[in-house]
Amino acid sequence: MTFNDNARVGGNSARRRGGTVAAIGGGTVGIGAIAVLLFSLFTGTDLTGSLGGQQAAGPGSGGEEIAACETGRDANSDDACRLAAASLNIDQFWAERLEGYREPQLVIVDQATGSSCGTASNSTGPFYCPPDETVFVDPTFFSILRAQYDTTAGPLAQLYVLAHEYGHHVQNLTGVFEQYPNNGSGPDSNGVRTELQADCYAGAWVAAAGDQVDENGTPYLQPPTQREITDALSAASAVGDDHIQAESGGVVNPESFTHGSSEQRTRWFDVGYDSGVNACDTFAVPAENL
User: Fold this and answer.
1) How far, in Å, CA of 54 to CA of 246, rounded?
2) Which residues have CB under 8 Å from 159's CB, separation 6+?
3) How far apart are CA 128 and CA 170, in angstroms?
4) Rounded to a whole number, what is the largest CA-CA distance in the chain?
5) Collapsing DSSP states into helix, strand and coil, what is residue 289?
6) Which residues lie across from 15 on neighbouring strands?
């Protein structure tokens, strides 16, 4: 997805933090580590210690502004700026749809940094930490998707990941985490329903992303092309539980699912894209139709 070159994106509140802890394996992570991550993200269990490294700075340690990130042209040429710029767009989208919406903090991770939910790095992948109301993303994670999960992880795929994590923030604000607490793994678990709803929210944002405008009325983003949407769907499919289990050499076991299958993740993205956020109540869907 392409930003309009003259869109003003310098008002974003994203911050860069980290640089104190090296990621495991010299900056790469294996499929097994990603599988550990997927278990920990919904359950709230901090398993990042098993991935290597040590705890970095705490969640209240501030951070630096994203340098050279003032226009859409800047966002088109730099992953960190792209994410920071998109936060303006996503916040505007949700402010128009959710009364009382408050913006989360976006932290662009440099190597590793701390959070109330554990260490954030490319070996833990992007995640939302509810106690901090903060989204953590290390842009080098996208190179892992490209190298290990057969997806191009292009600009729209990156923004799909970001919009998915912002979807978790919306769930936090609307009480979804309290109403549907962790009840273990499985194809009908609250964890799977929570993740699929976030995928649906991401799809709804992608469909409307070209409608959000800067202070001068210039749209932040150009409408997505079909090729970009296909790339985003490829990223969604790549992180399906069944695909990750198969790629790791194991048996696909739906009873261990925490995020949903590749088919479910792409289908719920499509539901949001086609029908908007009001169609994203995954908790109202019978198990056989999930």
Assistant:
1) 30
2) 1, 82, 83, 86, 206, 209, 232
3) 11
4) 53
5) helix
6) 65, 107
SS3 133: coil
- DSSP for 91-108, written as a single string: HHHHHTTSTT--PPEEEE
Which of 124, 89, 108, 128 shows the shortest CA–CA distance to 219? 89
How far is the C-alpha of 59 from the C-alpha of 229, rounded, in Å? 34
- CA-wise closest residue to 208 among 278, 273, 269: 273
Q: How far, in Å, CA of 227 to CA of 202, rounded?
A: 17
* Half-sphere exposure (Cβ direction) of 155: Cα atoms closer than 13 Å: 20
Q: How many residues does the chain have?
A: 290
Per-residue pLDDT tens, the chain, 290 aa: give them: 899 999 999 999 999 998 744 333 333 223 333 434 443 443 333 333 333 333 444 444 578 999 999 999 999 999 999 999 999 999 999 999 999 999 999 999 998 999 999 999 877 889 999 999 999 999 888 877 667 655 567 888 889 999 999 999 999 999 999 999 989 888 899 999 999 999 999 999 999 999 999 999 999 999 999 888 888 887 777 767 777 788 777 777 878 778 888 899 999 999 999 999 999 999 999 999 99
Tokens representing 107 are 């932290």
E strand spans, 105-228:
105-110, 112-113, 120-121, 127-129, 134-137
Start-to-end C-alpha separation, the chain: 28
Q: Tokens representing 201?
A: 């929210």
Tokens describing residue 37: 């991550």
Which residue in the block uniquely carries the two structure tokens 């949407």?
229
pTM score = 0.85
